[in-house]
């Protein structure tokens, strides 16, 4: 297959490119590098099946030659990034989705939208099945990301219903692993870098809020399985093992062997209190299950973060 991947230079997108190329697909990667980096795809620069186009997908997207599938992953994803780029986040969720859907439609290609567990907001149903409509504050700071993705989902389904585009939507739950930017502000990358630098781990609130962390290889396999399926609509892709943020901090300290302390900082506005995917649909429709538990995934991530050390220091990526 010949597949367009937007957000190809990002954390998840670069792993998606690796996965597709490894099985023999051709990949055209698009990215404007606002939160991604060419370092993530440097190893693909001489790959015959890979082409990179520096492009902002809020502008119309044209790719020459036939395309079999479009995977729209472009969007700031870390709260630190989307709070710094609120309008850009809403533009890529709306215009970016519109333009990539048009590309899929013009080619008769299957379309995958990378959505998020944030469409459930601060959920009042636990764990969250795809049928739950969510609990989102559109006026709060996180609304820019949550509502952009909710709009993107609605736009995707509208193109299916009105124009017959073959669509699917992955609702990704907190994913971590190699190639996260050490300074991206997400909890796993932040705790690992703080532990490696001997700095206090910054737990927001009292640390009793929960998340369910999925290792990137499991996530990418789930997204690609969804693309390969005939499923139309949204599927949760995440690891249902749920941890408090304090439990995560303890696991990171143990795995890094760090003696860092834990310090407490204010909880961000509208920070969801709990989050865990109901993955029954992924299990039945895709035969997908996560395979890498938190401790193994953290160990693999720490090993990668160690390769980013320059002397005793961890360098920040661009
Ligand atoms: P990331 O920030 O590492 O990657 C996003 C990529 O999109 C970056 O390379 C960025 O430069 C690119 N991009 C952003 N706006 C663009 C635009 N207008 N035009 C072209 N490129 C643009 O984030 P990630 O964690 O890899 O997330 C990838 C996708 O998965 C996002 O859509 C995100 O919403 C979704 N997602 C990720 C997680 C997670 O835990 N990692 C959770 C839920 C959803
Ligand atoms: N968090 C934290 N310390 C940090 C960064 C994040 O305690 O340095 C918390 C954050 O408040 C949230 C959870 O960790 O409750 C996950 O945050 P992240 O930004 O990784 O993802 P989110 O699920 O909020 O999108």
What profile does the largest beta sheet have? Answer: 7 strands, parallel
Strands, total number: 15
Strand order of the largest sheet: 3-2-1-4-5-6-11
Residues in β-strands, percent = 15-25%
Q: Overall 3D geometry?
A: globular
Bound molecules: nicotinamide-adenine-dinucleotide, uridine-5'-diphosphate
Look at the structure and give the mean pLDDT. 96
Q: Rounded to an integer, what's the Rg over CA atoms?
A: 19 Å
Structural class, from helix and strand content? alpha/beta
**Low-confidence regions:** none
Distance between the termini: 32 Å
- Elements, N to C (H/E): EHEEEHHEHEEHEEEHEEHEHHEE
Helix content range of the residues, please?
A: 25-40%
Helical segment count: 9
EC number: 4.1.1.35
Organism: Rhodococcus daqingensis
GO molecular function: UDP-glucuronate decarboxylase activity
InterPro entries: Epimerase_deHydtase, NAD(P)-bd_dom_sf, UXS-like
Overview of this protein structure:
By secondary structure, this protein is of the alpha/beta class. The protein is 37% helix and 19% strand. It is built from 9 helices and 15 strands. It has a 7-stranded parallel beta sheet, sandwiched between helices. A hairpin with a 2-residue loop joins strand 14 (309-310) and strand 15. Helix 3 runs parallel beside helix 4, helix 5 runs parallel beside helix 7 and helix 5 crosses helix 9 (294-307). It is globular, with a radius of gyration of 19 Å. The protein starts with a strand and ends with a strand. The mean pLDDT is 96. Bound molecules: nicotinamide-adenine-dinucleotide and uridine-5'-diphosphate. Residues 6-7, 9-13, 30-36, 56-58, 73-77, 81, 92, 96, 114, 116, 172, 174-175 line the site of nicotinamide-adenine-dinucleotide.
